[in-house]
Amino acid sequence: MTVKWPNSEDYWKGKRVVVTGGAGFLGTFLVEKLRRRARVEVFVPHIEEYDLRDLSVIRSMLSDVAPDVVIHLAARVGGIGANLAHPAEFFYDNLMMSVPLLHESWRSGVEKFVALGTVCAYPKFTPVPFKEEDLWNGYPEETNAPYGLAKKMLLVQSQAYRQQYGFNSIFLLPVNMYGPGDNFDPESSHVIPALIRKFLEARDSGERTVPVWGTGQPTREFLYVEDAAEGIVLATERYDRSEPVNLGSGMEISIMDLALLIAKVIGYDGDVVCDTSKPDGQPRRCLDASKAQRFFGFKAATRFEDGLRRTIAWYEAHGPTGRSGSAAELR
């Protein structure tokens, strides 16, 4: 059966949209897509003026902007090292910038709230591919459980507010993203930008060995950032249910194979070794993204190696001081 989706331009026409985290990595791509989509007015709150951990600031922003749609991307995020070093901050900051924002959005009459969760909310030993129905079948992987659980509470709240108030709130679960403008800070970056930086620096300095965290055996799935932005836009336009929906690409690669692929693309011919004193994190990650295609017509379009080459090219052109800065910062 062919689904007839509503006209994109009709949906966005005349709407005021708040994109929290709109100045960050994913947010920059999302805001650009929205502004190309139709005559949509987009407001991006910057932390210097709008610290969303402060309830009075949330109320002030919603009063100032009076948005029709809130797309909540803002988060405190980082790789395994950052999560291990700052578990309390990752829990508190993500909870406090999300739960009050959804409540005040409902209270102020926002038409639709789009909440971004995280693949880290899934149980540590979720069967692969991860299905949304398995979300509550165990505790998240310990290294990022505080972050994953804080984001998971937004799902509970989203469903409760729809049940009691009829509030149109949806919850999306994106897998790890990558792409141009990613965070390359070694203290807080995720695995792809961390490895890109390591291999480029090793190639340019003549270093003959590059360490990879853990055993190299865990697997991960990655979604190109522009594809993720498209998925969020489509879900905002077309999806109006309580059930969480995965956003992924359907690929799975081991950390060692990822490292070897990045080394090949960069032209590094030294040795890649495992640092088993570092944690592996979750054993496997790969999402079942079939609901996203069924419910709102989203399917990732970018081949992994193509996206990887674009990301490497961006970093070689911009270096560590490029646009996005540290992803562990609140945005």
Would you mind describing this structure in some detail?
With 331 residues, the protein is of the alpha/beta class. The protein has a domain of 221 residues: NAD(P)-binding Rossmann-like Domain (Rossmann fold), CATH 3.40.50. 42% of the residues lie in helices and 14% in strands. The protein has 12 helices and 12 strands. Strands 2-1-3-4-5-10 form a 6-stranded parallel β-sheet, with helices on both faces. Strand 4, helix 7 and strand 5 form a beta-alpha-beta unit. The C terminus is likely disordered.
Characteristics:
two-stranded parallel ribbon, Rossmann fold, disordered C terminus, 331 residues, alpha/beta, single chain, 6-stranded parallel sheet, 12 strands
Annotated CATH architecture of the domain at 9-183 and 222-251 and 286-301: 3-Layer(aba) Sandwich
- Beta fraction: 5-15%
Low-confidence stretches: 324-331
Compute the gyration radius: what is it? 19 Å
**What is the helix/strand order?**
HEHEHEHHHEHEEHEEEHEEHEHH
Strand order of the largest sheet: 2-1-3-4-5-10
* Helix count, DSSP H or I runs of 4 or more residues: 12
